[in-house]
Amino acid sequence: MGNKNGAEGGSLQDLLNSGEPITHFFYEYRGERAVEPLLLIENGITLWHEHIYTNEVHDNSYLWELAGSIVEDRGDTPMYSWVEWVRYRITTGAFVPAQWGNQRPYPYKGLLISAIYLQEARRLCAGGQPDRAWHIIVLAYYHLGLNTMSSTAQNTSRAAHVMHAGRTEKIRALVLGALDKIKRDGSARSMESAKDQVVELIRTKRDQDPVKHWLNEFDTIVPESTKGRTSAKRKNDVLVRIRNMLDNWSLPSGPYPELAEAFSHFSKRKDRKTTPTKNDRTTGEGVPIDESEYYLRLISFVEDGEVLTVKLSRNDEPT
């Protein structure tokens, strides 16, 4: 089964992929057993809310209430069952939440479908139809998995203009690298400061390869008519143009979610001492927010109903 000593000699946190769920549920601790569908639904709801709490790019908490209203407002359908007709319309783009308010393709289809299916599965169990609820639960988990942070970033990135994405790929890599250093140094206290420091870091490396080559390449492939908003005298300064682009790239609605997420670290709204981002996101479900600092939570269900929880904190010490 692959490398049995994968974590040896390094941090377990380093072995996790970006965007993986923080919480993982295990149902057959010390023995095989059947799992009640309501437990899976409850855990699915927890995972759904964990996803919206940890998404630093978009606040999708409104989707839970939207899904609830869709579940309650059942109507006639031309084909499929009611719930599959709803999924069909979301999948094909025939239905997009009004809150998105954007002409770009909607990247959170899976999250909305999952919210609808979790609530529909719960309704079926409450109505004495647990057998039919099973495939609804499976599809709820499936679509929730489609909207992990990494897959959402990929889906949203595809909505950006392909040509522009190709032109800026190496520049974006420079920006991400600079942001990582600035974050580690703790030298930026605001979004604007982070943007300025990114440009200055690139400036210090502009005469070194591969930075020099990447800047020249970018400068060559960008048409003269699109070389920035500045005056003619400074229009051809590649670093000025990059600084201008950062204003768009840092936005939650910008074309590159990975950059929006990286810049969000420097947003004043993320100051935990004032207004924690997580606490601003809530739904009528009342799923609690765990504010403790951990990167992995393992929840195991024991046969007698006991629940064993292990949390791995940022220093790799179980809690």
From TrEMBL:
InterPro entries: AryldialkylPase_Zn-BS (IPR017947). Residues 266-287 are annotated as: Disordered. It comes from the Bacteria. This is Uncharacterized protein. It comes from Lysobacter niastensis.
